[in-house]
Amino acid sequence: MSLYTVYPGGRPPENKTVTIDPQGEVQSIYHKEMVIIEPPEPGDGVMPTLETPYGKITSAICFDFSFPHYIRQAGRAGVDIAFDPSWDWRAIDPLHTWVSAVRAVENGFSLVRQTNDGLSAAVDHQGRVLARMDHFTSQEPVMISSVPIEGVRTVYSRVGDTFAWLCIAVGVWFVGFVVMRRRN
Questions:
Q1: Is the separation of the CB atoms in 39 and 6 below 8 Å?
Q2: Range of the domain at 174
Q3: Are residues 24 and 48 both part of a single domain?
Q4: pTM of the predicted model, to two decimals?
Q5: Distance between CA 87 and CA 85 in Å, rounded?
Q6: Could you tell me which residue, 11 or 96, shows the higher pLDDT?
């Protein structure tokens, strides 16, 4: 479950997810990490992963999914399903949801993104949209979906942007080589 808790007396609010098992025991608490314009303090930078009968699961919150290096820890941990509770607004609907879907493909997990004031979607590890519900256009504000419970391991979750940086380095070397040849 996702909670935004405001406390009296000046204590900073909390933006977090809480995972509870069928016996009612709290299994994990995750605090939003990428806090830029919000008052809550960021979390510890660790996405919790839990082994369940439905695969290995994790959660991050909203803007956290805009940071590939951060979400990559879920791919490295072999997560099968990620949950992304969010609160968007019309100006970024549906872009923010599709950015989160890209993170799912990069890291090989299914994604369930519940969004207030935006596009909610469930996608598999290949980016196929399994369900969607846009707050601004849907008549029925309910989304139901089944998602695959087995993710895949991806090269991206292991090496990250190494290949892209290598391409940039080779491109710079090539331009430098051409410039030096023309001078000679």
A1: no
A2: 160-184
A3: yes
A4: 0.85
A5: 7
A6: 96
